[in-house]
Amino acid sequence: MALVLDDEKIFDFVVKQGNGVKGMVDSGLSKVPDRYVQPSNERINKLEAKQHVILPIDLSELRGPRRNEVVKNIVRSAETIGFFQVVNHGLQIELLEKLKDAAHQFFNQSPEEKAIYLPGVSPSPLLVKYGTSFVPEKEEALEWKDYLSMVYTNDLDALKHWPMLCKEVALEYLKTSSEVGRTILEVLISELGVTYEDWMAEAYMGTKFVNMNFYPTCPNPELTVGVGRHSDMGTITVLLQDGIGGLYVKVEEDEDSGKKGEWVEIPPIPGALVINIGDTLQILSNGRYKSAEHRVRTTSTMSRVSVPLFLIPRLAEKIGPLREVAAKDGKARYKEFLFEEYKNNFFGNAHDGKKSLDFAKITAHNDNEYVTP
User: Fold this and answer.
1) Which residues lie closer than 8 Å to 246 by C-beta, 6 or more apart?
2) What residues contact 49, with CB distance under 8 A and at least 6 apart?
3) Cα–Cα distance measured from residue 286 to residue 322, given in angstroms and rounded to the nearest whole number
4) Exposure of 327 by Cβ count < 10 A (0-12 exposed, 13-18 middle, 19+ buried)?
5) 151 DSSP β-pair partners
6) pLDDT tens across 254-298, in order?
7) What single-letter DSSP state applies at residue 242?
8) DSSP tag of 82
9) What would you report as the CA-atom Rg of the chain, rounded to the nearest whole angstrom?
10) How far is Cα 368 from Cα 366, in angstroms, rounded to an integer?
């Protein structure tokens, strides 16, 4: 028998009891509950969306005669859409397939087995959290997504506390894809005219966590979203998509394609990883690189998984435009702040595009424009 509950009981069943969206779907749900119906302007029309089909960037060519061309492609993508895909990145296809399988295995467990990682229940809440949507308590319309978040401190903690079904493959993914992120950061920092130093990776990507996202099949995908409009708060995100698709990005600056301001789908490429620029890198570059506003569509045919690695600054790190960049630009467009402040602001609100960046912007109302000393 299908689950029939009012909004309050839906919230209790899905969020508080830890059944998640999957538990709701497994009950025999025949239509999207009202609590998940998005306003019409937030829905994703698959038929109207264009695909952003570009050749993936071959990272192995950074070590060859085509290095300058590869660097140019990375920089152009960071300056326009904030997303690109990479191949020959050093991660084995077998690892990526195992990672997707592990995600399905975790979410296919019983609600009771997953609920031990709920906030307030998890034996290691600072390292492992299972949940649903983004900030359910503050969202008027919930997102059609369950997730598992695993924060990295060291190998020993990960192997001790992360869930048995996925800890080893998730740890290997984190360590190898972190190197991909470091490579991209070095390219982008250097192209700003700033000398890249090893401490930058530790400062700006010193906190790492892997999420496993699960998007159950949805009876009315046109009414809801898997993830609402947002940009990532960190420096760089390395994302593994499965083959189903559903990732959409808003083109911020792209005069050549004529798609500025449009939402485009990032189609899955077998064996590729998706790289996206986060808010932190937009701030460090004084706005030259664009954090990517993106969202995720649901599907009625198959459950979908994705596995992002978030590379973010340490909480005590001071973030602001790099001095050399602000000096060259003649002004800083963002203020300096501790990253912990930005993180608290980011998670203190529901998804709302790139509005989180308002926290860091210098305007006539919050400060005068200045050049960092």
Assistant:
1) 215, 226, 265, 296, 297, 298, 299, 304
2) 248, 263, 264, 265
3) 7
4) middle
5) 209
6) 545 556 788 999 999 999 999 999 999 999 999 999 999 999 999
7) -
8) S
9) 20
10) 7
Side by side, the strands of the sheet bearing 146-152 are: 57-58, 83-87, 273-277, 236-241, 304-312, 207-215, 146-152, 128-132
Give the number of residues written for the chain.
Answer: 373
Report d(CA 303, CA 365) in Å as an integer.
Answer: 46
- pLDDT tens digits for 167-197? 999 999 999 999 999 999 999 999 999 999 9
Q: What secondary structure does DSSP assign to 133-166, as a single string?
A: SSSGGG-SS--S-EEEEEEES-HHHHHHHS-TTT
Question: What is the residue-wise DSSP string for 295-337?
Answer: EE---SSS-EEEEEEEEE--TT-EE---HHHHHHHTSBSB--E
**Residue 151, both tokens:** 């924060």
**126's tokens:** 């600072």
Contact 208, 154 (CB under 8 A): no
> How far out from the chain centre does Cα 315 lie?
18
Strands 273-277 and 83-87: antiparallel
